[in-house]
């Protein structure tokens, strides 16, 4: 079934990316709770190491989550991960240490060359949106076009 296959892809990527020792290791705190067919769901508990100077979820970590988890959603359709052409994050509220943040990423459209992705982060306790994000990715990687 496509949904199961898609979720398997998300779970594999979510395990693989943080294990390579690069910057994506910051994503190890996210537990994928579902997804497939262009969607990815997850959650994490905000820890002290995730905070900014004001004691709320760091905007850089939020941006990283928007970039990566929306890409996981897109990859569940079988798409190439592509490269980011545009990334936009709207910061709406904060999250403090100990709060659980839920993630809902959606593939709005994945065409032959470009993909359009949306993501929503909210506090689990009250459903308040912490941030929304939108990403546009270039996904047309025809090997013949890349050879020089």
Q: What does this molecule look like?
A:
This protein has three helices and six strands; from the N terminus they run H-E-E-H-E-E-E-E-H. With 148 residues, the chain is α+β, with helices and mostly antiparallel strands. It has one domain (2-146): Thiol Ester Dehydrase, Chain A (Roll), CATH 3.10.129. It has a six-stranded antiparallel β-sheet with strand order 1-2-4-5-6-3. The longest helix has 18 residues, at 2-19. It is globular and about 45 Å long. The termini are far apart.
- Ends apart, CA distance between termini: 39 Å
CATH class: Alpha Beta
Instruction: Please identify, by name, the CATH architecture.
Output: Roll
Main β-sheet, in a few words? 6 strands, antiparallel
Element order: H for helix, E for strand: HEEHEEEEH
Helicity, as a percent range: 25-40%
Structural class: alpha+beta
Q: What is the quaternary state of this protein?
A: single chain
Shape field: globular
In CATH, the topology is named: Thiol Ester Dehydrase, Chain A
Number of strands: 6
Supply the number of structural domains. Answer: 1
Poorly predicted runs of 5 or more residues: none
Question: Strand content of the residues, in percent?
Answer: 35-45%
Radius of gyration equals: 15 Å
Number of helices: 3
Fourth-level CATH superfamily: Hotdog Thioesterase
Mean pLDDT: 92
Give me the side-by-side strand order of the main sheet: 1-2-4-5-6-3
């Amino acid at each position: 079934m496509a949904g199961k296959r898609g979720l398997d892809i998300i779970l594999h990527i979510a395990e693989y990316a943080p294990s390579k020792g690069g910057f994506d290791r910051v994503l190890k705190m996210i537990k994928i709770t579902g997804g497939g067919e262009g969607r990815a769901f997850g959650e994490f508990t905000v820890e002290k190491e995730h905070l900014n100077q004001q004691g709320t979820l760091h905007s850089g970590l939020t941006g990283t989550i928007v970039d990566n988890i929306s890409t996981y959603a897109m990859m569940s359709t079988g798409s190439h991960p592509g490269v980011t052409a545009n990334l936009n994050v709207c910061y709406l509220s904060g999250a403090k240490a100990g709060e659980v943040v839920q993630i809902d990423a959606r593939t709005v459209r994945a065409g032959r060359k470009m993909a359009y992705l949306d993501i929503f982060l909210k506090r689990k306790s009250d459903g308040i949106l912490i941030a929304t994000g939108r990403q546009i990715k270039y996904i047309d990687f025809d090997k013949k076009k890349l050879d020089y």
